[in-house]
Amino acid sequence: MKKVHYKLYTCLLLMACFLSACDTANQVKEKKQADNAAETHKFWVWLHPKQGESDEEITERYKKYHEAGIKGIFFESDNEQHYRIAKSQGLEAHRWMWIMNRGEEFVRENHPEWYAVNRKGESCFDKPPYVGYYRWLCPSRPEVVEYLKADVEKTLQKDYVDGIHLDYIRFCDVILPVNLWQNYGIVQTEELPEYDYCYCDICKTKFKEKYAQDIDSIEYPQESLSWKRFRYDAVNNVVNQLSQAAQNHHKAITAAVFPTPDVAKRIVRQDWSNWPLTAVYPMIYHGFYKEKTPWIGTAVAEGVRGLDGRFPLYAGLFLPDFKDMNDLKDGIGYALENGAVGVSLFGGISDEVLEVLKQFN
Question: pLDDT digit string (tens) for 330-355?
Fold first, then answer.
């Protein structure tokens, strides 16, 4: 009888410990959420630093940014003047870098074999899809990964750079956002072979080694779950390598990604909810998908659920999509109410926009 009581006591004790641990974890999570909600600097901006500006005018602009609650800037090019002045005004200065979409002269002249190949057998090297600057590298090639990592390392070594912001960290759009179809005179209700990448010899060989299948023997390769997974993992490996480089330099690594985990996987083979990042910035450009402003909240909620607290999410908003400042205010509200830590803005940062941001401080 005593043994029964002892076992019961032990079970109750273990259950109490488990519940206590759960309560503690929930309390930590709730505190983290409360701290994020209380953060007065919730905003980021994407911009290209202007050349030839005086220190005074840059300082005045970035001071206004910080006063409006902007936390940091993603700079699309390297400009030490802008980075250092931004930092002097309390802003973080991050280098915004294109990763898989690379058309620089060195690669084109020396390594045409690095470029991704579509299902028709055409290479981005001489047949870029959609627009001339769409020249996608193949993430399955180790030499491509090493090249990208070396490029990122070079930037991380600069003392005025606070972190790396990854863009175009994906495959080419196999399906464009619906609002862009009219721009190219195409209808993409299915995955068309000219936009479906990458079918180079390296990808085919590695896929066969892992899944014991010849992709050329699959009747509908675009529907193969293992082929999709193979391509998600190829990009994931690039992110993992770059993330390790950022960690080695004790600097942040973030990414601009497609609006939700589902959309990202479906149209650009991007598995961002499983990346090792400091934070993520989904481009929830609602106008591109012919959605109304409330959809911003829906997209944020999906992303937050997918991340499950691994790192914070900031909603990327496209300023031209908003009809006026009240609409922008609503959009920011939808994002914050659904779990975004803040938002990041792309477009002209006017004084009107800054006044809207101040209302959330």
Answer: 999 999 999 999 999 999 999 999 99
Helix (H, G, I), strand (E, B) or coil at 44: strand
Burial of residue 329 (number of CB atoms within 10 Å: 0-12, 13-18, 19+): middle
CA dist 116 and 124 (Å) reads 6
Determine if residue 348 is left, alpha or beta; phi over 0 gives left, psi from -120 to 50 gives alpha, anything else beta: beta
Instruction: Quote the CA–CA distance of 46 and 93 in Å, as a whole number.
Output: 11
Per the CB < 8 A criterion, the answer to whether 75 and 93 are in contact is yes
CB distance 295 to 260 below 8 Å: no
Q: Are 125 and 52 in contact (CB under 8 A)?
A: no
* Strands 70-75, 43-47: pairing kind: parallel
Say how far apart CA 120 and CA 54 lie, in whole Å.
51
Total of domains in the chain: 1
- Going from the C-alpha of 342 to that of each of 45, 108, 288, the distances in angstroms are 11, 38, 21
Q: What is the DSSP letter of 69?
A: T
* CA angle in degrees (0–180, nearest 5) for 311-313-317: 160
Rounded to two decimals, what is the model's pTM? 0.88
> Does 356 score more than 50 pLDDT?
yes
Using an 8 Å Cβ cutoff, are 47 and 19 in contact? no
Confirm whether 124 is domain-assigned. yes
- End-to-end CA distance of the chain, in Å? 63
Indicate if the pLDDT at residue 205 is higher than 60: yes
Q: How far apart are CA 296 and CA 143, in angstroms?
A: 38
205 within domain boundaries: yes
Residue 85 lies in a domain: no
Q: Which domain holds residue 171?
A: 99-279
Task: Tell me how far apart the alpha carbons of residues 64 and 55 are, in angstroms, rounded to a whole number.
Answer: 14
Q: What is the DSSP string of 251-308?
A: -EEEEEE-SSHHHHHHHH---GGGS--SEEEEB--GGGGT--TTHHHHHHHHHHHHHT
Q: Does the structure show a pLDDT above 60 at 266?
A: yes
Sign of the CA dihedral with 118 first, then 176, 350, and 89 last: negative
